[in-house]
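Support case: user asked for a sample of complex input and structure output to validate their parser. Sending the pair below.
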Amino acid sequence: MSRPLGLSFRARLVLALVGSIAPILIVALLVVSAQTRNVTQEFVQTTRQNTDSAFIQLQRVQRQRLDGLGTRFSGGSRFPVLLLEATYSEPDIPHFEDQVSYELKLTSDTATLVAFTDITGKPIVAIRSGRALPDAAAAVPAALMTAMIERVDTSSFGYQLVDDRLYDLHVRLLRVGTEPYGFVLLANAIDNAFASRIRPPGGGHVCFAAGNRCYASTLTGNDQITEAQLVAPGADRLDVNGNPWAITSSTLAGTPDFRRITAIPLDDLLRPFSRIQTALRLAGLGALLIGLVLALLIARGLARPIRSLVLATQSVARGDYSVHIDSPSTDEIGTLADSFNQMTEGLRLKEQYRGLLDKVVSPEIAAEMMRGEIVLGGETREVTTLFADLRGFTAMTEGWEPARVIAMLNQVMEQASDAVEAEGGVVDKYVGDEIMAIFGAPIAAPDDPLRAVRAAIRIRDAVAALARQRSGHGEKTLGVGIGINTGEAVAGNMGSLRRLNYTVLGESVNIAARLCSQAEPQEILMTEVTCERVQHAFEIEPAGERHFKGISRALRIFSVRSHKRALESQPTIALGTIAIAFMLAATPLTAQRSIQLDLSARIEAAVYLPGDDPAWLIPSTQTFIAPRASLFADLFLGDRLYALLELRADRGPIPADTGFEFRAEQAFIRFTPTKANLHLQAGRFVSPFGEYPQRHHTTADPFIRPPFPYEYRTALMPDSIAPSLAVLLGWKDDDESYRKSEAAPIIWGIPYQLGAMLFGGAGRVSFRAAVINSSPASRTYDWERFRNLTERPAFVGNLGLRVSPEFELGTSFSRGPWLSTHLPASLDTFPIDARSSTDRDSYLQQIWGVNAAYARGRLQTRAELFLDRKDTPNVPDPLGSLSYSLEATLRFRMGADLGARWGAIHFDDAGAGDTYGGDPWDYDVQRLQVTAGYRIDESKDLRVEWMLNRSDRPAPLDANLLSVRVAWVLDRLW
Amino acid sequence: MTTLIQLLVLSALSMILTGQTVDARPLPAATVHGTITVPEGGARRVASRYAGSTAPQSVQPLNAIVFLRGTATSAPAARQVTMEQRDTAFTPNLYILPVGSTVDFQNGDPFFHNVFSYSKTKRFDLGRFPRPEKKVVEFDETGIVNVFCEIHKSMRAVIVVVDNSYHTEVAADGTYRIENVPAGNYELVIWHADHGTKTQKVQVPASGSVRVDAKL
């Protein structure tokens, strides 16, 4: 026995748990911290750009006003003349000031400072904020004038400090005729009010500074941040009392001395990220702790019973058969303990009865009985009895040769007893075309009733398969009625000493026999006692109350429909729960620009009016409504992470389903590591195989029902095994009793499977590569099984090429097991011939798909073609088919469209050799769909579709279906 | 001396001229201005739910716009403008146009776009067309037309069709200013692609300004 690493089971368990949690946690933390950095950078960048553009806009408006004023003062000759007069005569200055003030009042253009100077730059008049200054020369320093006058021809705008205030200045030359006589200087103050107009939202600050001094700012003195911190050179990040700030600085155009500094608070932006990080760390720590405790508990729980088993085995080895292990648990260890107890009990009884038997019967019979592990002697015990009676057998075999009748009966009985034995029961006797089986004697198991019902379903299915096979030969239907009851019975060997027969006797056995005789063909009846024990595992419906001879009160009877669809959607439910929790946690954070949660819904109601029976997958001609509502939650975390949860409520995947289902249809997370078109997606999502699934539920699918290869159910059954090719070839002739909706399609429309996918593209090429848990033809419940993904996944690939803007080509491939996981992993209890494997998952579906699309103007055409091959038990070669669909749609200017789609499936010969040569495994079928639609507005559309399904064999079939659908998209519910 | 005479003549002339401009009074008109508060939130993102498509993409941003409704003045002259589809974006993606204007939708990308609108004001679907084809749409009714591309979810544009010239885009700081609005009763419409519409009655006086602040 090898001991890897020499570690104890406990240590390995702990290591595995820690090893699986820690990397996830570390990756999550890394992603969050990288995301934080990106978002901060982007936020600072955007805020800075916003402030910049606000500043430029404001500056432009103010300069336009200065320019307007400048034109007013320099445009005519009035002000140049007034200036001339004021220059030459001192007493005209007040008059000049009045004229300027009046002019300023007339216009809506404003300036904080207006000054007129003579041609040397000596100020004559200065008006600040509408008031004339007594000493113009002092108000406008001569040096400033000189500086400005030098620039009058090049750039007449500029920033200047005047009197310790920062101004945006504009200077114009005043001329009388062509002669220059002076200048007008116009200026707007860059003051606190100016700064507050370009203040960034969310508590940021702006400051205009020269050197280390701030001349205008939005600071009020009570702010977190101080002027000194703002003007300090160099820093682009600040920490003010523990709150992070970003500082950006830009120089004012043309004047390197003046800077505009923007301070942006990052506190609100970073808070949710630090909350996520804390939550992640806590959750990770919690998960690690829980994992550790669980690992220790599991290891402890395993070690103790194993020790007691070891001790008990040692006792048995010494010859002590009286040991008994108490095992309260019901897990594998518990089963092992139970089996051990049964084993020792068996050994003990064997020892005890060997001597007795030797006396009662001949040694030969005794040996035979010992091999059968039969308890001799009468005892009262609880048993579950099953009676199965063939119906229509006599009618079917009427006129047959006796040898053929017997051969037929033996074939049925053999399959029935195989079914009983596969479930651990004992076939008690055959009486004509009736079989009696016992579960619970001689060996009792807690799940006897359960196994009896499972065996009953197997018998029913086997007879149905046989019936399918026979019905193709134009013979009458075969069925089986089954009765099951659980109760006390006397078990023991009955008969004479010469001929002993182990059997059970009692009222409960009689009731089972009566139930069997009352059961309709293909009906499984049982009493309340059995029902209570098995109702968790099967779909059961009440079948009324009945009286039985010798029992005073009426008994409630129940009928078994099928295996309960086990809660196999656990992975989706778990994914959904995680996704919902994640989204709830993100909700309060959505005020942040980096996180966005959108809730939207698609509600549709389709009215189906089948014109013939059977229209596709609809078993009657009755009109019915199939409503469907999908709720989508789209979560965006930064630009890298995207998660989707789709909850769906409808009648079931097939429109004719009568139930009500509420399920998480999709739940996945998509990670885009770089700016390149490359994405990693994991969870449950729409199948990457084929072209149609990528556009269903969108306006790109202008039809109600999917293309034919996505909907047609072939004759192949993924959860029954045809005992031979002959039987399988009979399946295609099945009539209504054959549940077409249970059969395997070419591709399920639309499959949503669990898995992981890498996809992306560059230029004209795109690709998808995925590992998913089931093949395109797998049953819906297999889409949600996590186990398939870890054991035998399906590999799917797709490659797309845009040849030209009009023309696109694509190809898909998928390879994976397709048989239903409701079958046991090992098929050895089924009749499997020597050339076929008994490994369920070795039967693969391989499917190649090619798709092409041409679109130009109002016309859109698409085509898809599939080559499907399915390995099938008891069939020498894979069963193949070729299927395709072609569609064309024409859109009109006003939102209406017309479309037509043609689909057909051709089935290969099954390769059965001479006997069945030239016999395809299913009949060729075709479908035509014609549709007209109208988009009422952005959210609502109305569609009518007429469909015709045809086939020539077994009988000419033209089944049509008219459907009308209203779809309503409710965008941004939240 | 000649210069002095010249000066005197010129100044007299200028006085007459300015006097005339003072006499020619403008129509009674005022300014409508104010601040619009738009809820915070970054660029909205969209992603395709089905495989084979791309990462989350930001939809094209749009500023809020403000326009006045209910004036009797005649509509300004119709314009002809171009809205290009370039780098998977409508450029520009906002036009405020007088009734009767036409827009050339021109594809500037090496792949197809399909420009359509299901807005009540103007329904159209231009089909798929490649570079450098263009399709012309006339806007003959007032209202707001949301324009999308059927192939690229993140593309969006808005064409506002108006029958006067009293409209503006709201500035980054939330302020707006509509000048020279003739006196009268109006409806001030504030519209943002992501935050809906708000309508407010406003009485514009003969002169001065009216301040209308609003929150979307």
